[in-house]
Amino acid sequence: MYSSRVACSYIIKIWIEGYAVSFSRLAGAAYISKLFALAVWIAAGSKLDIVEINHRARQPVFTKKAVNTIAVTVEHETSSGFAGVNQKGRVLSVTVDEETIEPFILNTLKNPELAIKLASRANLPAADDIYLQQFQQLFPSGQFSEAAKIAANSPRGILRTSQTIEQFKAVLMQPGQLSPILQYFSILLERGKLNTHESLELARPVLVQGRKQLLEKWLKEDKFAHALPGRQSSKIVVYAKRVGFTPDYASLLQHITRLNPDSGAEFATSLINEETGPLVDVQRVVDIFMAQNLRPEQGYLQTKLLEMNLLNAPQVADAILGNAMFSHYDRPSVANLCEKARLLQRALEHYEDISDIKCVLVHTNILNTDWLVNYFGKLTVDQTVDCFCEMLKVNIRQNLQIVVQAATKYSDLVGPVRLIEMFESFKTFEGLYYYLGSIVNLSTDPEVHFKYMQAATRTGQISKAERICRESNYYSPEKGKNFFKEAKLTDRLPLIIVCDRFDFVHDLVLFLYQNGLGNFIEVYVQKVNSQRAPQVIRGPLDVDADEAMIKNLLASVTGPIPVDELVEEVEERNRLKLILPWLEARIAMGITDVGLYNVRAKILIDRNQNPEAFLKENTIYDPLTVGQHCEKRDPTLAYIAYARGFCDEELIRLTNENSMFKQQARYLVKRRQLELWAQTLQPDNMHRRQLVDQVVSTAVPESQNPEDVSVTVKAFLAADLPIELIEMLEKIVLEPSAFSDNANLKKLLLLTTIQSETGKVMSYIDDIEGIDVCEIARIAIENGLFEEALTLFRKHKMHLEAMNVLVEHVVSIDRASQYATKVNEPVVWSRLGKAQLDGLRIKDAIDSYIKAEDSTNYMETLREPKIDTELRVAYAKTDRLHDTEEFLTMSNVADQLSAGEQVFEAGLYDAARLLFSAISNWAILATTSIYLGDNQAAVDCARKAVKLYENKGYFEELMQLLEAGLGLERAHMGMFTELSISYAKHKPSKLMEHLKLFWSRINIPKVIRASEQARRWPELVFLYVHYDEFDNAVLAMMERSADAWDHSQFKDIIVKVANVELYYKSLSFYLQEQPTLLTDLLTVLVARIDHTRAVKIFQKTDNLPLIKPYLIAVQHLDLPAINEAYHDLLIEEEDYATSRDSLSNHENFDQLKESIGLSKDDKLFKDAMITAASSNSNGVVEELLEYFVKIVGWREYQTTTEGLRSAEPVEETEQEPIIGPGFGGRLMLNQGPSKGTVMGQPGGGMQS
User: Fold this and answer.
1) Distances (CA, A) of 433 to 177, 357, 391, 411, 456
2) Which residue intervals correspond to the CHCR repeats (predicted)?
């Protein structure tokens, strides 16, 4: 990297490959920001990196942005913008609308400062008025420096006028300060070049002070305008004498003459007539003026002058023509004389007739090759081709290299097709080879690629032909195949490559076989592409080749062969046994390829060599493939294969087609798949009946696994097959089997029968034992089978349940009486008595109760509301309060409100209190308590009456009542609490004020619930804090952050929580909602959190920059997570100085992979091994070993290749091509012959 400051270069190790760099500065802040721009192009794409250098504190940070990179741009002159192509392939045209951009910035963005800067930089007219207005505001106010900047940066220099200079000159200079005019000029010089008027105004005071060095410095830096006002060139000599400077007068004269001939004449006169002698050579003056007066009418004189020089001094004529001093002479005549004078280049420059040009071109041994190649660019296409043909016709050996160079350079202009035809017409395949070799990699023309293959083949460059065959995607495959077939090469590899790439394998194999080139077939499958072996085998099979030849060919293949394709090829031709030796050899090698065992299975099946054992025991073959092979041969074997591989759909289809329902049933029972059962038990399945019969008769009875039966039952239930299910359950429950004692199956049989076959229920009840009687009876009753339920209860001597069925469901009191008489049990008689009582058979009910010896139900006949009411009043009036309380606890039908009102009106308040308390009439009870003098109880009742106020909607009255009660001496916690709840529900604006005043006198938990229900979140947080529920307070603030969150309050509370998980929840909460306050929160939690866990939270969300101050604050703890996070952040910010300091002061890092990678890049393999050993990681060590194996193998390959190349002999024959390949090993068309060589090769030979 070159440093302009110290004028020297440095070697700097940069880890990013750069293709272009630049430095820039951004102004507008306290200090100038220095930027380093680096353009990078890599395989994955292109990008532009802009990095800030030496960032200062308090400076705005330069934000790095990644955009969709525009790969190529070009200036678009029409729009004064640029056109480009981005990575997505879109063509973009970008330009600025000069008419609208300034109004947009002023009116929409409201940014006059940006508008001024943009107008100054781009010379936009829209901001002229703004500049004039700002200048007129700043100048009168004495802000001359700012006014000077406005004038200097004004668009199109609208303020850089003589009037502005006069305004600055008119300002009086303050003592000790720089004059405003000098401030103005210094700003102009910093910005760029001065105009003519500014240059003269600044030069005057500088020259008066004698500081010509400063003026020379500005002239060298191109800060001054060089034009002189008016015709004052005669003063140049006078000025130069006065300052003691001797300029280059000849150059000055030439410049002035070109601008103004009259001034030039005046200046020349002053130079010649100088008192001390001429200041410039007279001949030089003449030459300068002659060059300015080339007139057409003087053409004959120019011709005469050139003829004289060509005849007598050709070198002078060559110089004159080279300097282009004349332009009106006779060009054909001069061209003829140049040819005679052996100035062949000048002759070609002046000849226009093609015949004359061709006559001169044949002397290529005299002409300069580079000049000649460039000369062809001045001719037309037809002239160029004619010249090429003439050069090849005259001396092809001498001129071929030049023609190839020129053809390569002008290939796009002339066209490859025409040039190919030209080379072919002269039968020079060497020239065609080198010409096409230089353009084939850039061309997409199929003919170019095909002709290059032809030329390379005919010049013996078979390796080049192979490369094109292998890599090119543009040549015609058919033409390439036919050409190589006809070429009769000793090496058929190009033909093999073409056929392999474009799927001409069958044609290739037949061609090679029919022409006795069997060895190339082996080369193809052994070295080129063993994957094509199945297609290769197809050819010999189609022509009935010898089986031994095919077997040997297969045995010779060492690479991988697609077994399935090979089997398909031989199976189509019924020659499967042909590959048996190859198959057995592969299996003997321990290869467990599925395809191999598929073939083995097929052969065993075809030969009937105990295939059933193989299909059951082998686990490698593909059941689906083998099963399909067996279907037409033996369905039983196909069933075994499908069952082995759980090929459900194929097995169902096979068993249906071959009526193998018994096997299907067994498979379904053992498979235990409800989805498969549902598929086979579909109503539209024509084979369902046969399948069900086999399941019922064979599959389920054979099974010994309860899970099999369970899934089968579920399947029948899901398919809604109750009749079939009953048949199956009868088979395994009622008949001897492994499931005869299964209570669940017995229950299922009864339930299914109850729902589907009610006629069989009674017989099953008689036959089945060991069931849940109550459950079965309940379901029977629900389905209306009352007699069956009665029979079930009677069978199991559950007489009370049987009586319930008779009186509740059968509803027969007579049958119930008979049954009670039969069983004669007290509980039965008691239940019968209740039923008779409900049926108003009072006498029979009393008899039944007597037989049951049950008197508990006597009250049923004695209840009467009026009697109970009067009894309560009588108790009150006789002051029997104890009896009243006892009566209230008993079951009664009294009208207690009426009794209470009667007692209250009679003044019996104690009794009234008992009655009103029993019915919770709090309003009247409060009045009663007042009459009794129990004010506290009255308040309690009033509080309970609050609900009444709320139910009636008297919210204001309720709150006024409670507020009035707060001032009483005996106001207790309940009043404050109820008022808080009322505020929360009906007047939330007063709740917070009330809580702040009386939080210590309320029941906080109760108010917390009310506040939560009323969604009063700030008040809820306040209550949690004062109830020391800090965890709940933090959760409430985070969950209801919009209303309850306050940063200062949150910081005070979070440090008091008991659950440490809230620390990390709060970090996530601040990250989502208050990221700018994260650092402040972390400062509070720094002594309480797990720093490693905290850092991981921000690493997962890629928000480490937000906590940089926190990382710096806790880095002294030297934790690996902290160090790595901070180090990654510094690398991202490219702050290498701080990163280096961090690495030197802290030790805990986990950068093993990075360390090993750097050691690999620097080839410090010992260091890499030491680092891997210290990692104690098997994965790291194995990865390093794999790397060493790769590089050692590559080096061994390079050594072997170089040894083979050095051992190849170099043959020299006269029949070798005229031009060696690439002129010395490279396709360099501008390399001429060297001494002792012919066209760049020793002895004219060709280097292979």
Assistant:
1) 79, 27, 18, 14, 6
2) 249-404, 407-549, 554-693, 700-845, 933-1079
Q: Which amino acid appears at position 784 of this protein? A: G
If DSSP codes are grouped into helix, strand and coil, which group holds residue 330? coil
- The predicted structure's pLDDT at residue 1236: 38
Which two three-digit tokens encode residue 801? 């349940």
* C-alpha separations of 52 from 1, 9, 16, 24, 1127 in Å: 18, 22, 16, 10, 18
- Cα(782)–Cα(754) distance, integer angstroms: 10
Percent of the chain at pLDDT > 90 equals 2
Q: What is the mean pLDDT of the chain?
A: 77
Specify the range with the lowest mean pLDDT, choosing from 335-344, 628-637, 905-914, 986-995.
Answer: 905-914
pLDDT at 389: 92
Residue 82, amino acid: F
Q: What is the mean pLDDT of residues 616-644?
A: 84
Characterize the bridge pairing of strands 33-42 and 45-53: antiparallel
Higher-confidence position of 535 and 1186: 1186
| Sole residue written with tokens 């272009």 | 20
List the one residue out of 441, 379, 446, 437 whose CA is nearest residue 410.
Answer: 379
Q: What is the pLDDT of residue 894?
A: 60
Tell me what pLDDT residue 329 has.
78
> Measuring CA to CA, which residue among 692, 704, 685, 707 is closest to residue 662?
692
The phi and psi torsions of 231 (rounded to 5 degrees) equal -105, 85
* 3-class SS string, 100-154: CHHHHHHHHCCCHHHHHHHHHHHCCHHHHHHHHHHHHHHCCCCCHHHHHHHHHCC
Residues 6+ apart with CB under 8 A from 554: 533, 537, 561, 579, 582
Beta carbons within 8 Å of 353's beta carbon, 6+ residues apart? none
Tens of pLDDT, residue by residue over 736-747, are 676 666 667 766
Q: Are 547 and 570 in contact (CB under 8 A)?
A: no
To the question of pTM greater than 0.85 for the whole model, the response is no
Angle, CA of 385, 391 and 394, to the nearest 5°: 135
Place of tokens 């029941």: 1003
In eight-state DSSP terms, residue 532 is: G
pLDDT tier at 1198, thresholds 50, 70, 90: low
CA distances from 465 to 377, 420, 508 (A): 31, 17, 18
Task: Kindly provide the b/e burial profile for residues 453-484, where b requires at least 16 CB atoms within 10 angstroms of the residue's own CB.
Answer: bbbbbbbbbeebbbbbbeebeebeeebbbebb
pLDDT reported for residue 1237: 37
Inter-residue contact 928 to 937 (CB < 8 Å)? no
| Spatial distance between the Cα atoms of 915 and 1246, rounded to a whole number of angstroms | 132
- Is pLDDT at 681 greater than 60 in this prediction? yes
Greatest Cα pair distance, the chain, in angstroms, is 171
The mean pLDDT of 208-219, rounded to a whole number, is: 70
Local structure of 22: helix, strand or coil: strand
pLDDT of residue 16 exceeding 60, the answer is no
Task: Find the DSSP H helices in 906-968.
Answer: 909-918, 922-931, 935-944, 946-952, 955-965
Taking the C-alpha atoms of residue 1019 and residue 1011, their distance in angstroms, rounded to an integer, is: 7
**Alpha-carbon distance 851 to 824, whole Å?**
9
pLDDT at 487 over 70: yes
